[in-house]
C-alpha cells in the first residue's frame, strides 16, 4: 500500500504541465540522437547537464530519463532501415531488422521493435517500482567471478550459437578482443598494441568501432556491389500494425527478451549488449529446432526478442543507479554525475532523503513509455520511406552523419581516421564471410572480462577455483556447458542428415 501511495504522489508530480513538457522534450531528443548514427544518449545528457541547472532537479531528471528511454527506442530505427544502429545496444536488432526492410517489411519490423520496447518497458518499470529492494540485493551479490562468467556466456552465445560457423565466429571474436586491449592497461600501466601512436594510449572508442564496422563498412560493401544491385530501394510503406500471424510470432520473443533483460539491468556493469545478443541467440536456436530457416533473411523473432531485452535492461538499470550509486552504462554514469552536481548522492538513503524526486522519476518512466509509443508507432511508414531515397545520396548521408558523430564525441581527427580504418575492416570481414557481431561483442565486453578475471584471481591469490565458487557462477557455467553440448549435438545431427 505504501508503494502505491508513493507512486500516486510521483504521478501527481510527473503529470504537471512543466514536467510533461520536459518529458516530451526528453523523449523527442532521445529519439533523434538514437536515430543518428554516432551520436548517443550519454553525449546528449552530458550536453544537457549545464543547460538544466536552472531547472528543479525533478524536472531535469525527468528530461534525462526521457532522453535515456528515447535513445533506446530510436536506436532501432536506423538499425532496421540502414543496418546502422544508433546505439550499440541495437546491434543485434540489425541482424534481422535490415533483411526485413530489404524484403519490404520495414513497417512491420519497426512496429515490432516499438511494441516490444513499449511492453518490455512497462513490465520492467513495474518490477522496478515494486521489487527495487530485492533487485538491489541481487546486484550486491555479483562480484568479479560472476561478471567474468557472464562475459564468457555472451562470447560463446555470439561466436558459436548466433553466427553458426564456430571457426569464423571465434576468429572474429579474437579480433574484437584484440581491439579491446589497445592502449594502457589500467592495472599494470603497460602499453599494449599502440604501434607507437600516442593517440592510441586511451584505447579505441567503442563508438568508433561500432560506427566504423557497421555504418562505414556497410556503405563500402554496398558500393562494391552497386553494379549488381539497383540504385534505389523501393519498398511498400504499408501499415505500422502487425498482422495476427506476426503478433503470434512476437509474443514469445517479447516475453523471453524481457525476462533476459530485466536481471541484466540490475547487474552493475551488465549493460544492454549481453542480453540483446543472448536473446538473439536464443531465438535463433529455437527457430532451428522448429526447422525455421528464416533467420538471416529477416525473421521477425530476431527483432522482437533483442528489442524487448534492450528496453527491459534500460528500465532496470535505474535500480543500481538510484539504489547503489553504481552506473551500468555510460549514460547512467552521466546521470550519476548530474546527481552529484545537484548535491545528491544516489544510494540506499536516496529513496528516503529524496523520495519525491525518486517516485516522480519512476512515474515519468510510465509516461515517457506511452509518449514514445505514440510518437514512434504511427510514423513507422514515414521512417520506412527513407529507403526510397536514391542509394548514393542515402549512403553518402550516412557517412557524413557517422563522421560528424565520431568527430564531435572527442573532437579528434585521429578518431575519424580510425573510423575509416574500422570501415575498411568491416568491408573485408563482410567480403570474406566473417560475422561482425563477435567483433563488436569482443570490443564491448573484452575489458569487463579481463578486469573481472584479474580481480577474481587477485582475490583468490591465483586459485582458479574462485571462478566456480558461488551459486551464480555455477549456474552460469552450467549454462555455458549445456550450450556447448547442445550446439555440438545439433551440428552433428545436421551433418548426418546432410
Describe the structure.
There is one protein chain. This protein has helices at residues 2-14, 17-35, 41-51, 57-82, 91-102, 106-140, 144-162, 166-180, 206-224, 244-266, 273-290, 301-316, 318-324, 330-341, 350-353, 355-376, 380-384, 391-410, 413-431, 437-459, 471-497, and strands at residues 183-184, 191-192. A hairpin with a 6-residue loop joins strand 1 and strand 2. Helices cover 73% and strands 1% of the residues. It is globular, with a radius of gyration of 22 Å. The chain has 21 helices and two strands. The chain is mainly alpha-helical and 498 residues long. The model is unreliable at 230-237 (pLDDT under 50). The chain has a two-stranded antiparallel ribbon. It has one domain.
What structural category characterises the helix and strand content? mainly alpha
**Separation of the first and last Cα atoms:** 61 Å
Mean pLDDT: 79
Give the spatial strand order of the biggest sheet: 1-2
Instruction: Tally the structural domains.
Output: 1
What is the H-and-E element order? HHHHHHHHEEHHHHHHHHHHHHH
Number of extended strands? 2
Q: What fraction strand?
A: under 5%
Radius of gyration, taken over Cα atoms and rounded to an integer in Å: 22 Å
User: How does the major sheet shape up?
Assistant: 2 strands, antiparallel
Q: Quick one: overall form?
A: globular
- Count of alpha and pi helical runs: 21
- Percent of residues in helices comes to over 70%
The unreliable regions are: 230-237
Give a nutshell description of this structure.
This protein has 498 residues and is mainly alpha-helical. The chain has helices spanning 2-14, 17-35, 41-51, 57-82, 91-102, 106-140, 144-162, 166-180, 206-224, 244-266, 273-290, 301-316, 318-324, 330-341, 350-353, 355-376, 380-384, 391-410, 413-431, 437-459, 471-497, and strands at residues 183-184, 191-192.
Amino acid at each position: 500500500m505504501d508503494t502505491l501511495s508513493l507512486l500516486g504522489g510521483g504521478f501527481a508530480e510527473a503529470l504537471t504541465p512543466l514536467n510533461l513538457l520536459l518529458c516530451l522534450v526528453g523523449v523527442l531528443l532521445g529519439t533523434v540522437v538514437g536515430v543518428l548514427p554516432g551520436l548517443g544518449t550519454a553525449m546528449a545528457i552530458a550536453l544537457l547537464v549545464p543547460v538544466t541547472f536552472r531547472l528543479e532537479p525533478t524536472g531535469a531528471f525527468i528530461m534525462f530519463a526521457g532522453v535515456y528511454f528515447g535513445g533506446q527506442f530510436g536506436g532501432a530505427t536506423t538499425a532496421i532501415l540502414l543496418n546502422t544502429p544508433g546505439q550499440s545496444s541495437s546491434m543485434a536488432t540489425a541482424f534481422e531488422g535490415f533483411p526485413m526492410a530489404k524484403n519490404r517489411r520495414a513497417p512491420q519490423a519497426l512496429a515490432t521493435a516499438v511494441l516490444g520496447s513499449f511492453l518490455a518497458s512497462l513490465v520492467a518499470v513495474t518490477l522496478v517500482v515494486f521489487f527495487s529492494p530485492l533487485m538491489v540485493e541481487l546486484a550486491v551479490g555479483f562480484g568479479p567471478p560472476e561478471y567474468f562468467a557472464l562475459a564468457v556466456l555472451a562470447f560463446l552465445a555470439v561466436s558459436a550459437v548466433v553466427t553458426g560457423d564456430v571457426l569464423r565466429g571465434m576468429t572474429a571474436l579474437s579480433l574484437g578482443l584484440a581491439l579491446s586491449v589497445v592502449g594502457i592497461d589500467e592495472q599494470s600501466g603497460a602499453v599494449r598494441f599502440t604501434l607507437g601512436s600516442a593517440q592510441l594510449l586511451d584505447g579505441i572508442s567503442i563508438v568508433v568501432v561500432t560506427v566504423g564496422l557497421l555504418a562505414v563498412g556497410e556503405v563500402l560493401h554496398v558500393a562494391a556491389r552497386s553494379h549488381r544491385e539497383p540504385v534505389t530501394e523501393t519498398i511498400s510503406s504499408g501499415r505500422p500494425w502487425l498482422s495476427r500471424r506476426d503478433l503470434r510470432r512476437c509474443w514469445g520473443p517479447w516475453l523471453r527478451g524481457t525476462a533476459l533483460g530485466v536481471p541484466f539491468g540490475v547487474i552493475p556493469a551488465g549493460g544492454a549488449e549481453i542480453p540483446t545478443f543472448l536473446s538473439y541467440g536464443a531465438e535463433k536456436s529455437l527457430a532451428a529446432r522448429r526447422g525455421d530457416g528464416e533467420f538471416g533473411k529477416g525473421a521477425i523473432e530476431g527483432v522482437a526478442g533483442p528489442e524487448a531485452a534492450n528496453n527491459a535492461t534500460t528500465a532496470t538499470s535505474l535500480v543500481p543507479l538510484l539504489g547503489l550509486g553504481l552506473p551500468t552504462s555510460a549514460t547512467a554514469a552521466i546521470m550519476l554525475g548530474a546527481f552529484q552536481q545537484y548535491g545528491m548522492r544516489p544510494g540506499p538513503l536516496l529513496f528516503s532523503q529524496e523520495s519525491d524526486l525518486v517516485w516522480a522519476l519512476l512515474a515519468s518512466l510510465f509516461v515517457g513509455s506511452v509518449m514514445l509509443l505514440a510518437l514512434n508507432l504511427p510514423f513507422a511508414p514515414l521512417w520506412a520511406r527513407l529507403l526510397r531515397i536514391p542509394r548514393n545520396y542515402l549512403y553518402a548521408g550516412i557517412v557524413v552523419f557517422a563522421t560528424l558523430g565520431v568527430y564531435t564525441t572527442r573532437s579528434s581527427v585521429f578518431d575519424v581516421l580510425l573510423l575509416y580504418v574500422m570501415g575498411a575492416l568491416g568491408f573485408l570481414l563482410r567480403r570474406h564471410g566473417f560475422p561482425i557481431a563477435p567483433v563488436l561483442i569482443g570490443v564491448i565486453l573484452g575489458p569487463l572480462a579481463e578486469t573481472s578475471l584479474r580481480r577474481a584471481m587477485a582475490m583468490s591469490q591465483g586459485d582458479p577455483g574462485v571462478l566456480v565458487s558461488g551459486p551464480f557462477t555455477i549456474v552460469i557455467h552450467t549454462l555455458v556447458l549445456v550450450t556447448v553440448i547442445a550446439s555440438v549435438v545439433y551440428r552433428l545431427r545436421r551433418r548426418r542428415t546432410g
